[in-house]
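=== RUN LOG ===
request id: a7f3
mode: sequence -> structure
chains: 1
length: 143
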Amino acid sequence: MVPRAELLYSTFLCANERSGLIWTFLKRRKDMALISWDDFAKIDFRVGTIIKAEDFPEAKRPAYKLTVDFGKEIGIRKSSSQITDLYTKEELVGKKIMGVVNFPPKQIGPFISECLVTGFYREDGSVSLAVPDKDCENGDRLG
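=== RESULT ===
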């Protein structure tokens, strides 16, 4: 079984003195398919700010209903996120996150999720949010 926290890709740089070549070795999980650059470019990752966090008692697993401001172009979107292990509702409000804004809406119980708030699965199964490390404006695109 592959641990959830395993790195999907590991890059090792090897400089060849004569040619200056750099070799990249991929380490993939067995269940992960390679995608093309064009596939990746279709994903619209944007910075947003969580403006509201509510309990989601109807969810199968503990989750929050989040309202996220993605700026003028994208606007306000809602999402369900299973991040209750590491975050309180109070600390989420005002937090910058990275989200995918071009997935179709998804029905989750009585709630419709309009974006995907991204995070990293830790070995214990909890999720650590993917956040920008410097200040960004809502709506800034990953590139």
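=== NOTES ===
The chain is about 10% helix and 30% strand.
Confidence is low (pLDDT under 50) at residues 1-28.
=== END ===
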